Amino acid sequence: MELTTAELTVLGLLIERPRHGYDLEQVIARRGIRQWSDVGFSSIYYLLAKLDKRGLVHVPEAPAAPKSRHVFHATAEGRAAAARTALALIEQPQPVRHPLLVGIANLPLLSDREYAQALRTRLAGVEARIESLRSAQQAQAPLPHPAREVFSYSLSLLEAERQWLAARAQVPDD
After folding, report:
1. CA–CA separation, 93 vs 134, rounded Å?
2. Is 72 in a helix, a strand, or coil?
3. Is beta strand 73-74 parallel, antiparallel or unpaired with respect to 57-58?
4. Theoretical Cys-Cys bridge with 123: which of 33, 78, 84, 165, CB 3.0 to 4.6 Å?
């Protein structure tokens, strides 16, 4: 990969429109990007500095005052690198390391009752997450196409998990 997923996430938001670091943080929080990305609050400026050093973003004009915010713009090279990395991530399936699978692999440690209760608890959490995502999506409408696709894919995965959990949560309690 040319870019890490964190770099691509930040660069993609700058390609969407030029932004300063604080604005990036606000968009990341509003869209729930931390649910599927490893962009931390404290890493935004580090990532911007890295992208700037590589010539993938730039600040066209120096701010008037020392404390003014630097608005970062993606460069043509940044757009090209982002496009190549995004295409590779979309085209190439990657194994998903999901902690749930580790728990399920250790079912002999649990009784049927404990397993059924854990599934019901997880199901409630998944249902709450679905509602939270739908609310966030509706509150920000209209969203740019990439954000709509992220919400759509995320909701599809959660719906599939909800269906799987609902079928298995029927494990007898005794």
Report:
1. 26
2. strand
3. antiparallel
4. 165
The tens digit of pLDDT for each residue in 111-144 reads 999 999 999 999 999 999 999 999 999 998 899 8
CA nearest 6: which of 30, 53, 57, 41? 41
pTM: 0.79
Tokens in use for 107?
């079912």
In the block, residue with structure tokens 């915010």 = 69
Contact between 50 and 4 (Cβ < 8 Å): no
Identity of residue 139: A
**Cβ neighbourhood burial of 128 (10 Å; 0-12, 13-18, 19+):** exposed
| β-sheet bridge partners, residue 58 | 73
pLDDT band at 174 (very low <50, low <70, confident <90, very high): very low
